[in-house]
Amino acid sequence: MRVLMPMTSTATKERGSRSRDRTPSSAAPAKAKPAARTRERASGQGGKRLAAAFDTVSATPALAEARQRLLRASEASAPSGDEVAAAIESDAALAIQVMRAANNGGGPHGRTRGVRQAVDILTVSRIREIVDGVNTYDPFEHPNAQADRHERFRRHAVATRHAAERIADLARLAERDELAVAALLHDVGKLVLTELHGPFEETTDERATPDERIRRERRELGIDHALVGAVLVRRWALAPSVAATIERHHSPKATGHAAAIRLADLVVHYASGDPVPPESIVAAAEQLGLERDAIAPLLYEFPHSGAALKRNTDPCPLSDREVDALRGLAEGKVYKQIASELSLSVSTIRTHLHNVYRKIGAVDRAQAVLIAHEHGWI
Predict the structure, then answer these.
(1) pLDDT by residue (tens digit) across 247-256?
(2) CB neighbourhood size of 79 (10 A)
(3) Which end of the chain has fewer beta carbons closer than 10 Å to its terminal beta carbon, N or C?
(4) 135: alpha, beta or left, given left = phi > 0 and alpha = psi -120 to 50?
(5) Right CATH number for 320-374 from 3.40.50.2020, 1.20.120.140, 3.30.565.10, 1.10.10.10?
């Protein structure tokens, strides 16, 4: 392991031959003019530059402290998979390396959707080997523009993950581990654009909203960071659903995980004092079926509301209708009310709930609701 220093011209020349040492250059390349871009496309240079940018971002360094904590967690006498996963999720760079390793090699691509599952598949000893090869940065020991850029990316990624998990709890979204990965990587395309065009985002008017910033990317660069990030995530062989979430996380019409990350991103920017119109937050929440009263506590609590929400990676054994019926019980409704809301007969609701009790080993409604809450199924 080595701590990254600002790159010299010699290091820049060597970058293409040593993939482990690839880190974004602190020197901002000149922004390509339209004519230059046309010549690049004609000569194939544009594709080569994009591939080089992908390779560099694929070797993004981790915060030295985050890497050290992960090593400590993995070297414990009895390593906890949950603690190892939590350490990985503290840094997008660590998550990138672990998720890539879990989804490449033998087996279908995209088979591992979350960090906790990746820990089980790879084993703790294999994760230690992966982490040993991760470069690091330390913004205090070696302060420079490059380290500052990486740390801003890491902090925003982790903050968005925290917010997305809280939103998923409010909106009752499933596949929380997959959501966490998408939240950590949602802005990875910005690192690619920085490699291609220099610190483009830093030249944007500081009063610009997140939506205005991405429109400027499309207008001046011909592409945006959400699309570029999705392309890179597919290149890493992560789950197609993770790539699709990243690609759509700035869309006002996003649904599901993409809508949750859009809302989380807006909340994080708002909490950081960035310009975010309140109506855009309300509109994003509405895409998840959340009313204004539901998001007011979210803004108050963010970034931390106490203990971190615990996610369970056990797959839900219930059908969608069984989950809907169980949610009705959790809200204190009787069979007739649940049946009316779901446009089903009372006998059908009774059958669904009987199946719920049998599948999860509950003896009554109270135990069924408790078990489902503990596992994050409702």
Answers:
(1) 999 999 999 9
(2) 18
(3) N
(4) beta
(5) 1.10.10.10
